[in-house]
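Worked example

This section walks through a single chain of length 200. The input is the sequence exactly as stored; nothing has been trimmed or padded.
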Amino acid sequence: MEIQRVPVSVYAEMTPNPAVMKFVANKMVVDVDHVEFHNIEEAAISPLATELFHFPFVKEVFMSSNFIAIQKYNVVEWETVTQEIRQFILDYIQAGKPVLTGTPKGAPTAESEEAPAVDPLEGLGDIELRIVDILEEFVKPAVAQDGGNIAFVAYENKVVKVQLQGACAGCPSSTLTLQQGIKNILQRMLPTLVDDVVPV
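Given that input, the structure is written out below as tokens.
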């Protein structure tokens, strides 16, 4: 019996950040939570990201599971380049070329797996752990739909500090998202424990 290969498809999707377009594939692109490249030097571990930086309008590349979010410089409009980028990513994935050839910073490596793994949640108190759980369960999936990621940084004096990545970083509506969305969720689920949420 012959195995049928599922054809690869890639579609473009707008994000709340007008400078970022999300390109979604019908298969896994990377097998890490996410990886972000701010320039071609950082992209050395990703042949795909390196090639994307050869487009003169590409400013940043963010990859997570089955999508690639690209932030552009304000020198072109998405209408004029979206189809070209979509076709480039589709051809690249269809050709079976490697997307990542190295390990992103912060991801476990062969050496770190032999050594005792450092748990990023180690040393966090009960409140911090509850905040991380709420962000993972209720916030991260919604942020990922918009082509971004959110990471817990710190909790001090009832203020939660988070890092916005991908399409969320620099998005004009991210302040609104933080203030009204994330802050409201945390205040509802942890009454009296959260006064504010700020990006770092």
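What to look for: Residues 126-145 form the longest helix (20 residues).
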